[in-house]
Amino acid sequence: MKKLQLAVISFFMMAIVIGLAACGQDEQGAGDQDSQSSQGQEQVELDLWHFDPGAREEVYKEAIQRFEEKNPNVTVNDLLIPNDDYKQRVVVSMSGGNPPDVFTSWGGGWLEEFVDSDQVRDLTDEDIDYDSFVDVALNNSTYDDKVFGLPLGISTYSFYYNKEIFEEHGLEVPETYDEFLNIIEVLKENDIYPLALANQPKWPGAFYLMYFADRLGGEEVFQDAYRRNGGGFDDEAYVQAGEYIQDLVGKDAFNPGFNGVPYDSGQGRQLMYTGDAAMMLMTTGFVNNVRQEFPEFEEKMGVFPFPTIEEGTGDPTNIAAGVSPVWSIAKDTEHPELTLELIKELTSVETAQGYLNKSGTPVAVKGVEVEDEYVTIFTDWINQANSIQFPYDQTLPPELAELHKNTTYELFGESITPEKAADAMEEKAQEILE
Amino acid sequence: MSTDSNVALEIQKQATEAHKRQNRKKSLSIFLFLVPAVIIYLIFILYPIIATFNYSLLDWNGMGEQVFIGLDNFKALFTDPAFWLALRNNMYLVLVSIFVQVPLGLLMALVILSSIRGKRALNVLYFLPYLMSAVAIGLLWVFMFDPAKGPINNVLNMFGFESISWLASNNIAIISVLIVLVWQFAPFYMILFKASMVGIPEELYEAAEIDGANGMQKFLNITFPSLMPTIVTSSILAVVGSLKTFDVFYIMVGGSSGGSTEILGTYMYRQTFVNFNMGYGSAISAVMFVIALASVIIILFSDSQRKKRGDLA
Fold it and tell me: What's the structural domain count of chain A?
């Protein structure tokens, strides 16, 4: 009886031990097999992580296919992880010492955090034709004159509006801020929400602060504050920008409860599609969304840049834009050559052309043909721009970026004064930026 | 006589020896049975807890250099207003789960065990929320609470009330999420209570009826005392659960609102993964762990006191 019991237990223990050992061996075994397989060529798997769904993902998949055809012994495991989750997954994988070989980002302060931790491969001296990239976009992933990522898309931020509503009420695209305010008045009288805003994720509202500060004080305001060149985030332009925001909130220019409306789930865009709201300040991702969610809206849709503010000193050709995706290679990848080939394919003219055509977004790669109606406009803006402002939350170090979004969110929620918001930012900036 | 007793002692000794051996064998097999569970416990529970406490003593962004800074993270934490705000919000959550979720669960269990019509349908209806994934619940309620087109505001408008910006304004946002959490978790306690109510012997009620007790008296003197262990278990689960809450808050308010709806879980997440302060985030986790542990000890201790008093009486 006792013996039987012991035998049973031993059996279970053995099973578990063998099971565990088998799990551990699994990967090794697979590796062995790979290295011996066809034509004596090593079978390689590369992990690639990105965060773009829809048309953009399709474009990446096509690029990966081209890459795999050129390198038949390589399989690329591409993994799409939604935005917020993405940031977490990358951090965890990097700290766990098991990062994806190739990953994408927004460049700026977020990527710099990984660069500072020595997790990203320096691409400066690699065989890459840097002349084929748009300079400003490349600068976004260049730190201390070293390049750590190759940019593909440039997403411009501008107002999208409903042409039908504008025609119906005899409105014209505003050039000045006064005209813009006038439009808001007219729309309000006609029971239309002038501006759609889905500010729960906080970045949509931050666009307003960024544009107001730029139009009021010019691009130097941010540059001086960020580079610590005698400027600060408590600059008069930031206080004023806060006042402009709260003025719009006070005028009920936005849809009600905008601070609780998430962007991704689409209620904000829905207001635009249904004609409940007339204008929305958004990235080029909006075009991508319209084409996927409600293509009928495209014929009613128009775009215009952020209006000029008469009392401001900023150049009205200035534009805000974000660079993404930016392809980088993990420093510890076992396949330095192949990963380099892969990100070159992901930023090739062919890939860029597909990206441009399918997602309605300008690209950071030269030599593409612009056919898309919207991309033509956006590209013109980029070419004419005196300066391009990258979003603060992607440029600043993460902690300061987070505070920027929080204080701006509170400005919209009228739970903080413009002075206090600006002071809080400056205090943190002094702590974080040297 | 003396030899007899010696022999007797000897036999006794041998008997205890054998018994001991047998015991040892038994405990060996018990131990072997436990090993797999213990290994998993050590790797997935104990090690992360110790690692978290270890990280909480570091200045570390999660990837780069680790700098040992002693208790500086905790010093910073205890003077951090955002932490206290998050803790206060967590306390609301604890209070709501103990004083709303658990009693509501009890009430629901009473209803579906009573003899009313349609209790089967109610049984299913009550339990449905608990079966949904947190992400689905979060999104569902975001749409319910939508300020412009949401059904809740539509109903309010129908009765002539003004629309409410549920998730936008600071105080209402947290109440909105609490409503959802109650809706989500009350069914869980209902199941616990239902299970233990079924176990209460019918004789007790019959005896009470013979003694002429009414429904309320039966509940107060039989049902409620018999449920005490379940209530204690529920409270522990409620406290620990509400300290760990993350998902629904994260989805519904993005843990955002400039800190006003921040709870410890979301604050920890933000510090660790958004701001790259792995050390600071771990310090928050460590504090969460200590609070949860302390609460459980207090509840268990007061329960054992109650039992002692019960024995004396």
Answer: 2
